[in-house]
């Protein structure tokens, strides 16, 4: 009996740690993303922080972005590229609570990324960077588990 | 003297017509912010669906351009996702209004994307600009049509620059 109780307790803990991207988590991530993404120039600096993080973590990724002047994150070409990527993420996050449309959009992005031959582990890197940059902007109101699981839904859809 | 002055005023009115001033841009950003948020996707889809409905009503043939995204069922996931991409594209542009050089790059990118699609003409952009101008005041409390049109037309013309 005691053993049984312990395993129920452990299972409960596991469930807490690996919260899945449920309906409430989706609403929370949408709300927090809206705050982080902001508008206008805020987005430009947010994007800069994300890309600096990516290139720092994995310098080899830079070579994928020569077409959009990845050598210079301040160039208009790269900024425009950054705004497209963040815009893509914005669409997915904002669709988290409309599953059918989200899946249609993920399929669309999946096609675009396959065309460009982006390796799946790059989405993992982007995820890791987001888990640093987003809380830096949100402060203490960042829900790590919700973000990790919901970002996982998006990244899996784009890179499968 | 008076004639010169009138001439200048008319000239001023004409140039103001196609200029999207920094006041206009801020007006546009403010009213867009009011109706737009990642937290409320439903609005984005609804606004875009209303814009496309208006377009298809006025130009039924333009519907053929969207077969690939299942336009026959405007509530299908494919068409809803398309709607999201369109308004998101606009959202990105509005966000870049203060960063002219980056905005130009992004407009160039969109111009290429549209040039690559068969059947889209510059006239379609005038049509959809009209549709937006009709839909926006229905969802925006304090709509400024002049500022909206000046900036929207400027963006639309840049995207249509590589079309015939």
TrEMBL record, chain A:
Binding site for heme b: 113
Disulfide bridge partners, by residue number: 21-150
One Pfam short name: Globin
Domain of life, per lineage: Eukaryota
GO CC annotations, alphabetized: extracellular region; hemoglobin complex
Keywords assigned by UniProt, alphabetized: Disulfide bond, Heme, Iron, Metal-binding, Oxygen transport, Signal, Transport
Keyword Transport on entry: yes
GO MF terms held by the record: heme binding; iron ion binding; oxygen binding; oxygen carrier activity
Region forming the signal peptide: 1-19
Domain Globin: start-end pairs: 20-160
Family designation: Belongs to the globin family.
UniProt name for this protein: Extracellular globin
Protein species of origin: Aglaophamus verrilli
From TrEMBL, chain B:
Amino acids binding heme b: 114
GO molecular function, one term: iron ion binding
Alphabetically ordered keywords of this record: Disulfide bond, Heme, Iron, Metal-binding, Oxygen transport, Signal, Transport
Pfam families: Globin
One GO CC annotation: hemoglobin complex
Keyword tRNA-binding: no
Residues in the signal sequence: 1-16
Keyword Heme included in the entry's annotation: yes
Bridged cysteine pairs (disulfide): 20-151
Domain Globin: 19-164
Coiled coil: none
Family: Belongs to the globin family.
Protein name: Extracellular globin
Top-level taxonomy: Eukaryota, Metazoa, Spiralia, Lophotrochozoa, Annelida
């Amino acid at each position: 009996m005691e053993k049984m109780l312990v395993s129920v307790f452990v299972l409960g803990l596991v469930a807490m740690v690996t919260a899945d991207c449920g309906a409430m988590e989706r609403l929370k991530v949408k709300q927090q993303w809206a705050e982080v993404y902001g508008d206008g120039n805020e987005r430009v600096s947010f994007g800069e922080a994300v890309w600096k993080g990516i290139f720092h973590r994995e310098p080899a990724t830079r070579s994928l972005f020569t077409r959009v002047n990845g050598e210079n994150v301040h160039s208009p070409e790269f900024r425009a590229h950054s705004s497209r990527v963040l815009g893509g993420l914005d669409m997915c996050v904002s669709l988290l609570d409309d599953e059918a449309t989200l899946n249609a959009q993920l399929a669309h992005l999946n096609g675009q990324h396959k065309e460009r031959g982006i390796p799946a582990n790059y989405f993992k890197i982007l995820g890791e960077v987001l888990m640093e940059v987003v809380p830096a902007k949100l402060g203490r109101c960042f829900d790590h588990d919700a973000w990790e699981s919901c970002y996982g839904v998006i990244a899996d859809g784009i890179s499968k | 003297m008076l004639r010169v002055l009138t001439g200048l005023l008319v000239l001023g009115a004409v140039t103001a017509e196609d200029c999207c001033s920094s006041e206009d841009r801020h007006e546009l950003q403010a009213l867009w912010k009011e109706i737009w948020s990642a937290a409320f996707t439903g609005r984005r889809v609804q606004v875009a669906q209303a814009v496309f409905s208006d377009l298809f009503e006025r130009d039924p043939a333009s519907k053929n351009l969207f077969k690939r995204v299942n336009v026959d069922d405007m509530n299908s996931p494919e068409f809803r996702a398309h709607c999201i991409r369109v308004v998101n594209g606009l959202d990105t542009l509005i966000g870049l209004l203060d960063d002219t050089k980056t905005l130009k790059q992004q407009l160039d990118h969109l111009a290429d994307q549209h040039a690559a699609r068969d059947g889209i003409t510059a006239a379609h952009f005038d049509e959809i600009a009209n549709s937006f101008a009709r839909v926006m005041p229905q969802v925006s409390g304090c709509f400024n049509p002049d500022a909206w049109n000046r900036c929207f037309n400027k963006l639309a013309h840049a995207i249509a620059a590589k079309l015939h």
